[in-house]
Amino acid sequence: MSEDVDEVGWAIEPGDEMAPMIEVVGGVIKFHREAAGMSVADFGDAMRYGEDLIRKVERGARIPRVEFLYSADELVNARGAIVAMRKYVEDAQYPKKVRKLKESEARAVEMLLYSNHHIHGLLQTPEYATAMFENRLPALSRNVMEREVGARMARKSVFDQDPAPALSFVQEQVTIERPLGGTGVLRGQLEHLLEVGELKNVSLQVMPTFREEHAGMHGQMEVLKFHDGTAVGRSDGAFNGRPVSTPRELRILELRYGMIRTQALPPRESLAFIEQALGAL
């Protein structure tokens, strides 16, 4: 991801479908700035940003932060007109690829999710997600990390949907035991897993390391099924890691996932395993 970020916001990605709306946001800010009789220089000084950054926001080249909208609205007495643009900014502030994933997850009526190196993104606490991004190389800037963590937490809205989708998670044992971020972070993460594992629409299983047979050797896997009967799936080590949607390709992924679930500990035993791991910290 580009690290073209600053305290104002983020650069709009090329080809982003949200670009026209961000241009509208910038136009609204410019309209009310001019209506208040303020030059770009005066507005920038009052907002404590340079003229160049203000011009980029006004022409839609940067996605402003929500806090920027509130400060600008108050400064030019826009009476909520600028703050009303908040939804578009919130939608656009996450990377395009994450928005696409979030949209797919929101449409899904069933998800099959296997994770072998880390706790799955939909299950992560903010602290665990931060620790994950802190381990990225090359290192991410503070602003990029903040954006990535925020995007990951936004995806968790699937747990609030009504009706709730059926969610099946299988986690490798090592992901339950690896203390990313330290013992305190792992403790909070395991406590969260126990809470999520009790939800009626969630099946959470642990794949123990001692298993001699393992159908998940192709790496991380996910299958999302939609209301209209279509589906999309992906596995790191299958079909060159690309998303697939044909019946034949999906059948292969579902066959592998079904075997992974059979080989993993049952849900109740899995929760007991997580409780034991938590108690050992």
Describe the protein in words.
This protein is an alpha/beta fold. The protein is built from twelve helices and seven strands. The chain has helices at 19-35, 40-47, 51-58, 66-75, 86-92, 96-107, 126-134, 142-154, 173-177, 183-197, 247-263, 267-279; strands at residues 9-11, 62-64, 108-115, 166-172, 202-207, 221-226, 231-235. The strands form two sheets. It has a five-stranded mixed sheet with strand order 5-4-3-6-7, with helices on both faces. Strands 1-2 form a two-stranded antiparallel ribbon. Helix 2 crosses helix 3. The longest helix has 17 residues, at 19-35. The radius of gyration is 22 Å and the shape is elongated. The chain starts with 8 loop residues before the first strand and ends with a helix. The model is unreliable at 1-6 (pLDDT under 50).
Helix-strand topology string? EHHHEHHHEHHEHHEEEHH
The portion of residues assigned to helices is: 40-55%
Number of continuous helical runs: 12
Radius of gyration of CA atoms, rounded to a whole number: 22 Å
Let me know the number of strands: 7
Average pLDDT, rounded to a whole number, is 91
Amino-to-carboxy terminus distance: 35 Å
Feature tags:
two-stranded antiparallel ribbon; 48% helix; elongated; disordered N terminus
Q: How would the blueprint of this fold be written?
A:
Elements: E1 9-11, H1 19-35, H2 40-47, H3 51-58, E2 62-64, H4 66-75, H5 86-92, H6 96-107, E3 108-115, H7 126-134, H8 142-154, E4 166-172, H9 173-177, H10 183-197, E5 202-207, E6 221-226, E7 231-235, H11 247-263, H12 267-279
Parallel strand pairs: 3-4, 4-5
Antiparallel strand pairs: 1-2, 3-6, 6-7
Helix pairs in contact: 2-3, 7-8, 10-12
